[in-house]
Task: structure prediction
Amino acid sequence: MDQEKVIVIDFGGQYNQLVARRVRECDVYCEIYSYRKPLSEIKALNPKGIILTGGPDSCYLEGAATCDAELFNMGIPVLGLCYGAQLMMQVLGGKVERAANREYGHTDIRIDSTSPVFTGVPEETTCWMSHFDYISKAASGFKAIATTGNCPYAAIENPEKKLYGFQFHPEVLHTPQGSSMIYNFVREVCGCSGSWKMESFVEDTVKSLRDTIGDGKVLLALSGGVDSSVAAGLLARAVGKQLTCVFVDHGLLRKNEGDQVEQIFGDKGGFELNFIRVNAAERYYNKLEGITEPEEKRKIIGEEFIRVFEEEAKKIGTVDYLAQGTIYPDVVESGLGGESAVIKSHHNVGGLPDFVDFKEIVEPLRMLFKDEVREVGRQLGIPENLVSRQPFPGPGLGIRIIGDITAEKVVMVQDADWIYREEVENAARDYAVSAAAIDGIKIDPENPDYSVMKKYYPDWMPDQYFAALTNVRSVGVMGDERTSDSAVCVRAVKTVDFMTAESAEIPFAVLQKVMSRIINEVRGVNRVFYDLTSKPPGTIEFE
Result:
């Protein structure tokens, strides 16, 4: 894209996509590249700044990921994070060695607020540390601009060359002032204007899709989730009835969701496209019989998606393009675009298999993060209740059922999930109605304006919440009888970017009501657990 950009150079850090996301929050476009990419090619991209990620290596060991010293002499501002900061020192003549005391988690830090990267940041704050090594000696021309109890160079700078390094991770939400620090680097040090806007993205993408597709036919995998729905909206605006959306109801959707998808995108919906619903539940259950490993489930479900599309393509005639709702975290987590290990496979990442007869793949959202996708949806006029819908994994409830999958288990987790989400939503709605009333604003609880109601949601309202069926069976007592039934786990997280998350503090009274209803209304369940795990170290999904 012909616009100002910041480049993230990936050394295998687990937060690389989050670094890019934080840059995008500054209204600056950002892409991730491997440290193996030739420096000449990086320079040719004409970046206004470069950020070096963390990584699993010790930079002083033979064979560790490294970079050319020329990177720091190109006149382009550079910010190193954790391993990136250590590598900067190692390459430029400083010293990095094993720390006597590892720092991990929330750490008190004292900063020099006169540094341009710390403008507006309190002199005493906290940060998120995760390192075994530390900078014991700064390279010539650098000075410390932040310290902790165990780290004399928690942050360093060479302002003349516009080189900066943080031993901590400003990109994670656990560093409260982290976003401000990245903003300072990107907008102030690098001089970026902040021209990356969703309005221009929609306009440019629609034009690009028209140019690419021409009069060709397009087949889109429509799940009804945010990503595929926004992709459908973009394609419908670009090529209209040239688009056929195939909605595969694999029997692993949330309760009643299949019918909701058809209501929105079917003949009676407001989209100019061709809609096909394929009811394939039995087909999927047969394929998944006896499969327990989550990654294997993902691959089976993904392959079956391709098979269904292939069959539908044959029915509708020649199809030139396969469109998919791939977004940037999908790409990164699949081990593409940088150096990160594969976290999980995504059925819509990696191009087309050789045996699928399409000309080309179209991924209009490939470079966007989730919240950017939502904003595009709003620009397209997609209803807010769909745009803000909770993320739902491509494999659906297949990975929210621990162990093998059966039709009976699907019904159990659908019902438990429905109850959980209903009670959380009811409690949040009631809170919002009361809070709005204090400001003199009336919200109709039966037909609320969600754009207004969301402003009054309680602080505990989670960004994603769902029920999962565990493979735990335990003894219980219901009535006068001993039971040996299943346990349901309910999860709720607060997050901005869905790459870091904290457990939501749902009121205990709400959880008690959820527990009571699930045990009484869902046959075969006698226990309910609440998952408190943050991300990291866990993932948002329970699989």
Remarks:
- Residues 340-356 have pLDDT under 50 and may be disordered.
- The chain has 15 helices and 18 strands.
